[in-house]
Request: fold
Amino acid sequence: MFEYVWLIPLFPLIGVVINGLFGKKIKNEAVIGGIATLAVVGSFVVACGILFQLLSLPGEERHFVKTVFTWIQCGPFKADMAFLIDPLSALMLMVVTGVGSLIHLYSIGYMHGEEGFYRYFTYLNLFTFSMLLLVSGANMLVMFIGWEGVGLCSYLLIGYYFHKKSAGDAGKKAFVMNRVGDFGFLLGLFTLFYYMGVNHNVWTVDFTELAKHADLIPVGGVTTVVCLCFFLGATGKSAQIPLYTWLPDAMEGPTPVSALIHAATMVTAGVYMITRMNYVYIKSPTALLVVACVGAATALFAATIGTAQNDIKRVLAYSTVSQLGYMFLALGCGAFGAGVFHLMTHAFFKACLFLGSGSVIHAMHHALHAEHSSADPQDMRNMGGLRKKMPITFLTFLIATIAIAGIPGFAGFFSKDEILWQAYANPFHGPVNFVLWAVGATAAGLTAFYMFRLVFMTFFGETRLSEKAWHHLHESPIVITLPLMVLAALSALGGWIGVPKVLGEALGGLPNMYEHYMEPVLAYSTEYMHTAGLHGLHSEAAEWGLMGVSVLIACCGIAVAAALYVVKPTIPAAFTSTFPALHRAVYNKWYVDEIYDFLFVNPCKALGQFLWKGFDVVVVDGIVNGVAAVFRGFSGILRHVQTGFVHNYAYSMVLGVVVIVACYLFR
Reply:
């Protein structure tokens, strides 16, 4: 199956061509949606075959490169259009195509009746193609094509409702912020390429070749510069401080787009890129500390904002930013496998949550439309009691919420607990470790609080709908609920492949299959840490203790949410009135957008106005118009020479004769 890896990105690309060229003429929604969905399902089938073949091989043989053609060749430098198959890329291909297939299927029902139905699925297939290229590329240039492709598609999908100014602005915001990150990516790529070429005659951007020469990469120095440049790229793509503000605004796109971007694809690109280059990052403790601190700060900062939002999708958006912070916290602690493990489990429960919110919005929209209400179908303050009318959506949403809260047995518990343990026990950051763990644990408590706040406001209590709207409220069709059920099952069971060692032994010797699976990808980092004497804390008692504390914190967050929004629902309003400034600051996202506007956007606008009205209009236009005025003046005189009137020419001839005669007579 390895030989057919090129089919994985090809199938969605075929869907792009068919729907892009003929979708407007096809018109049939079932055919358009079916083509797009089957294209991704085909990629998923091939990815499954590749994964099964990979698992049948010994660990040291789980590596394959399929070269399609030579793309660039110049002297010693060569870059192929090639695909890399190893445990990391195989896992990412499974996640992208598996979750992507469910989102495509869901979209057929959710986007029913949309005028741009074919355009939506064209963009969605193109997005999937770009992400598959990103995670399977055998070198940085192929990865960068996919990297830019998902950036373009995010602009197209976020701004899908282009007639709305807010959607257009959100698309432009995502595009511009990602370009800032892309500058860092390219700077890191050029620096690494130049250093390895000039100093070691290794002129390559191929991941396999760089890994073979990883011993030539120095500790610190230029490596730190390279890592920080690449991390700047990751902060843009994966929405970390300070380049995170585009992601909440991405809610302007259709809800399935939010699920695709925020769950399994674009926002995880930075996590994948750093993990792919773990043999570079392991050589720079400074860069690891920066990554860990930014990740921890993002996890906590975004979690605080999520506690005060009322838009159901915006709560989930800030949750995504926070969970991505967890992934970078793991990467910054050298726990690259733990970061990717949380990426996988997060794809399951966050996709379920976003699609579940879409099911709620879909039902609310129809209910409010039935009574001609202009109320916002996404505002949780307009909901309440929906579990009675939407039992499947409620149950699947609840399972995913339990998973993200980190309750034992569910997927999020295993990955989040591993990250918190690595934050506390890693050998890189010394006394900072406790701070990293404390920040991560606090963010975990806030996550449990705001997610169950969402559940209680949406599905519990008395309905806030009118009797007529309540009567029209109903469960979503099977094309929407089926993906929810599959994702809920994965949210409940998906974490058991990575059971921590201490817990596995207590449960009768359950192995950590995920850790063993990822060993070939992280072999160099593991060996380097062993050789350098970098050994983290090994204490079963401490691990059990921290595991218990994190579960207790999550339970406290759930209990507080229940007390405030079920038992005593009047308390939040009282708190808001008591601390209005604090609530206003959190509700307004700590005014970060306003600060950015003041520091960057408005000065750029002012500079643009000056360059336009001051330089362009006065100087550039002045010169051009001045030259035109001079020639217009001369032409105003000379145009009388050629008037087109015969009597003028006769007059000129007579005048000329008179002048000649006069000159002759008075010479």
